[in-house]
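DM from R.C. (forwarded with permission)

"hey, sorry to bug you on a friday — could you get me a structure for this? deadline for the figure draft is monday and I only need the backbone to look sensible"
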Amino acid sequence: MTETNFMSWNANKICTALTFALWFSIACKGANAMQFDCPVIKDTQPGYFQIFDGPPADKISLMAESGDSVHGFWSKLSYVYDKGREINIQCAYLDGQTRKFIIEKRIDFCSYEVDSTNYAHVSCR
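My reply, with the result:
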């Protein structure tokens, strides 16, 4: 019985340590991620958003590696920074307005989710 209690105690200790390690890993990834949300603009609705290699004026729009109208991702984006450029996120609205985010910090991965009101939420790391 003592062996069983000892093994059970060790198993609990191991499970606790693994749970903490998993939580810490998730927390660290979250801490390094940058969140970009297309802002709500009064009297208009969101149309779409795009990610660009460099300024949107250069018209080098990047297609999502995988995705649909609700969620998807881009990976291997660091080549943009290797070429001396930056990733730009542009939110476009039905009335023609746009809002732009320039990601100066080197990233390699972005994912997006479009909510039920058609607003885009982009997370990059």
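R.C.: lifesaver. The first strand starts at residue 34 and ends at 37.
me: no worries. Confidence is low (pLDDT under 50) at residues 1-30.
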